[in-house]
Specification:
Residues about 1-25 have low confidence and may be disordered. About 50% of the residues are buried. α6 (about 225-235) packs antiparallel against α11 (about 295-320) and α11 (about 295-320) packs across α12. Helices cover about 35% and strands about 20% of the residues. The protein has helices at about 70-75, 85-110, 145-155, 165-170, 180-185, 225-235, 245-250, 255-260, 265-270, 280-290, 295-320, 335-345, 365-375, 385-390; strands at about 30-35, 45-50, 60-65, 120-125, 125-130, 140-145, 160, 190-195, 200-205, 220-225, 325-330, 350-355, 400. The protein has a six-stranded mixed β-sheet with strand order 3-2-1-4-7-13. The chain is built from 14 helices and 13 strands. The longest helix is centred in the first third of the chain and has 27 residues, at about 85-110. The chain is an alpha/beta fold and about 400 residues long.
């Protein structure tokens, strides 16, 4: 996999300009940008990638821009219903588009590329609701962004709204990365689990590439990743995340609480399944806390870390019994205590960050949405029905021309 990721700052003579799009996909590289802002609500990750059919993608530049505190607070308030919600969401979407534009500018400056060389931007947006299959049988998912403003600011085509088509086809619209994980991390003769740890954790189960056709790729959300730990430390300390898991490491997990949290029906539910802050939030945690048996805040943080680690390990044992390798990506990889706890609950497994395979953990999700946008330009499906539960494969995303 080392050839998958290659840093380069030189301009290729045969780079495909935007107006070539899919027509030249087989003949020349296509330059795409992927932008991801996940449920951890920490900021925007961006990559500039060169795609060419039959070859591994090359990452030409990467950037990470943090949310300003006010913007992050606005998105946190939008996680639940409130007054003047449409107005507040529209302004937050504009702010996100501007931050995404800044991220694009950083990528262009770093790589020395021009806007007219980029085929499209694949922009995920910020999830503020995720309720597939609920209410009317279809439900919805909503990733806020102003893609028209982003196209206007950058002068580059924007592809956004990747999840709604899968919902319309009866799916969960999550996780969407497994198809990309299969292309990036599949191995010829071993089973692998790819674990993305953002606000929510999701798993991709990859059979050997030589496996029978019936043993296909699948994936699902396993439960909370960083969301509960981030929310809890935010409530008790002046921090938005637990750096290196140090606060959790200084506490003692309460087994009774961990067991009670793991009794949540979501964990026993069979895939396809997905979740978000709609379920795993502080209200959910508070409902499980016992006022008559108070715990120290750091012990609750340690318990939340165990919840994430145990739910990931339990899902691996249940759904990937053949595997002995877990490749982790996403912001949770930076939490060394969490990574150690996952390893402790997977004895005999190799637990390693995707960096060791040549793909920096913080870039994997942005890279996945660049790949999904590239698929959109070729009118190729981006979802896996075995993962999302959709009726059949669908081309994902909506195009906003520059």
């Amino acid at each position: 996999m080392a050839e998958f990721y290659a840093m380069s700052h030189t301009t290729s003579a045969n780079s495909s300009p935007a107006n070539h799009h899919a027509a030249n996909a087989h003949a020349a590289p296509v330059l795409m940008i992927g932008l991801m802002s996940g449920t951890s609500l920490d900021g925007v990750d961006g990559v500039l990638v060169s795609f060419q059919n039959g070859r591994q993608p090359q990452v030409l530049a990467s950037a990470e821009l943090r949310f300003l505190p006010g913007v992050r607070a606005d998105f946190m308030r939008l996680q639940r219903s409130g007054d003047d919600e449409i107005h507040r969401e529209a302004l937050a979407a504009n702010a996100l588009a501007r931050l995404c534009s800044d991220c694009v500018a950083a990528l262009m400056q770093q790589s020395g590329r021009r806007a007219e060389e980029i085929a499209a931007i694949g922009a995920h947006g910020q999830t503020i609701r995720h309720q597939p299959g609920l209410h009317d049988g279809s439900g919805y998912t909503w990733q806020t962004l102003n893609p028209a403003l982003l196209a206007e600011l950058t002068g580059i085509d924007v592809i956004a709204d990747f999840r709604s088509r899968d919902i319309a086809a009866g799916g969960q619209a999550a996780p969407l990365a497994p198809a990309f994980h299969a292309s990036a991390f599949g191995h010829s003769d071993e089973w692998r689990v790819i674990c993305n740890i953002g606000g929510i954790a999701n798993l991709t189960i990859l059979p050997p590439r030589q496996a029978d056709a019936g043993e296909g790729v699948f994936g699902f959300d396993s439960g909370p990743g960083n969301a509960l730990m981030d929310a809890w430390i935010g409530q008790h300390r002046d921090a938005t995340y637990d750096a290196d898991g140090a606060w959790a490491a200084g506490g003692k997990p309460d087994e009774a609480l961990v067991s009670q949290l793991l009794a949540e029906p979501f964990f026993a539910k069979a895939p396809p399944k997905s979740s978000g802050r709609d379920l795993f939030n502080l209200d959910w945690l508070d409902w499980h806390l016992d006022d008559e048996r108070p715990l120290a805040p750091e012990d609750i943080q340690a318990s939340l870390c165990e919840l994430t680690a145990r739910s990931i390990a339990d899902a691996c044992f249940k759904h990937a019994p053949q595997a002995r390798t877990l490749i982790a990506c996403g912001g949770g990889v930076r939490n060394r205590h969490l990574m150690a706890r996952i390893g402790a609950h997977l004895p005999g497994w190799k637990v390693l960050p995707s960096d060791e395979l040549g793909v920096p953990a913080q870039e994997v999700e942005a890279l996945a949405f660049a790949w999904l946008a590239w698929r959109h330009l070729q009118r190729l499906p981006g979802n896996l029905p075995a993962v999302t539960g959709a009726k059949s494969p669908r081309v994902l995303g909506a195009l906003y021309p520059r």
